[in-house]
C-alpha cells in the first residue's frame, strides 16, 4: 500500500508499466468535471471509475482484495477512511474471478484517512476496506490497473 499526495504520483510511475498513463490522465483531466461512469484508458488493462460512493460505517465496510488489478483510489469531495491489512494475515475466502474480488469476514488491522488531494494504491497483497465515511454520498475515482 502507498499513501501520498497527488503532486507526488509521478514518482511512482516506474512501479507498473501502465502507471505513466494514470499520471497522464490525472494531468489532463478535471476529475470533478467528469460524470459518474467508467472511462477506458487502455482497454481492460487500465480504466478509471468515476464514482458516487456511499459512505459506510466501520462495521459495514467490507474487507476486500483483488488478484488481477491494482486499485488507485482518490477521494474528491471529502476525506475517506480506508481499512488495511496485509493479505497474508487474511483467511482463505472465495474469489470471484469475473469481478476480480475476494471479500473477507474479518476486520482490518489499521485505518488510514485519505483526503482530497491524496491517493492510495492497493496492490494484490493489500487487503482494504474502502468507503468509510459519515458522508452519505461523495465523489471519488478508482483507477483499475492490470497487476
Concise synopsis of the structure shown:
The chain has one helix and twelve strands.
Description:
The chain is mainly beta. The protein has a single domain, classed as YhcH/YjgK/YiaL (Jelly Rolls), CATH 2.60.120.370. The protein has one helix and twelve strands; from the N terminus they run E-H-E-E-E-E-E-E-E-E-E-E-E. It has one helix at 19-28; strands at residues 2-5, 37-42, 46-54, 63-65, 69-75, 80-86, 95-96, 101-104, 110-114, 118-122, 126-132, 137-146. It has a six-stranded antiparallel beta sheet. The chain has a three-stranded antiparallel beta sheet with strand order 4-8-7, with no helix packed on it. Strand 7 and strand 8 form a beta hairpin. The protein starts with a strand and ends with a strand.
Average pLDDT, rounded to a whole number, is 98
How many domain units?
A: 1
Tell me which oligomeric state these chains represent: single chain
Tally of extended strands? 12
Order of helices and strands: EHEEEEEEEEEEE
Helix content: under 10%
With helices defined by DSSP (H or I, 4 residues minimum), what is the helix count? Answer: 1
Shape category: globular
User: What's the story with the biggest beta sheet?
Assistant: 6 strands, antiparallel
Going by helix content, strand content and strand pairing, the class is: mainly beta
User: Class, according to the CATH hierarchy?
Assistant: Mainly Beta
Strand residues, percent: over 45%
Outline the low-pLDDT stretches.
Answer: none
What's the gyration radius in Å?
Answer: 14 Å
Beginning-to-end CA distance, first to last residue: 13 Å
Main-sheet strand order equals 1-10-5-12-3-2
CATH homologous superfamily classification:
YhcH/YjgK/YiaL
Gross CATH architecture: Sandwich
CATH topology: Jelly Rolls
Amino acid at each position: 500500500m502507498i499513501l501520498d499526495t497527488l503532486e507526488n504520483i509521478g514518482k511512482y510511475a516506474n512501479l507498473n508499466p501502465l502507471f505513466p498513463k494514470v499520471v497522464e490522465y490525472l494531468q489532463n483531466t478535471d476529475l470533478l468535471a467528469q460524470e459518474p461512469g467508467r472511462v477506458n484508458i487502455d482497454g481492460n488493462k487500465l480504466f478509471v471509475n468515476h464514482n458516487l460512493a456511499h459512505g459506510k460505517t466501520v462495521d459495514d465496510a467490507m474487507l476486500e482484495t483483488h488478484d488481477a488489478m491494482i486499485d488507485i483510489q482518490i477521494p474528491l469531495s471529502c476525506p475517506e477512511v480506508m481499512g488495511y491489512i496485509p493479505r497474508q494475515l487474511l483467511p482463505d475466502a472465495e474469489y470471484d474471478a469475473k469481478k476480480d474480488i475476494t471479500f473477507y469476514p474479518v476486520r482490518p488491522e489499521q485505518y488510514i484517512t485519505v483526503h482530497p488531494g491524496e491517493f492510495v494504491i492497493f496492490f494484490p497483497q493489500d487487503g482494504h476496506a474502502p468507503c468509510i465515511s459519515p458522508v452519505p454520498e461523495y465523489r471519488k475515482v478508482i483507477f483499475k490497473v492490470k497487476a
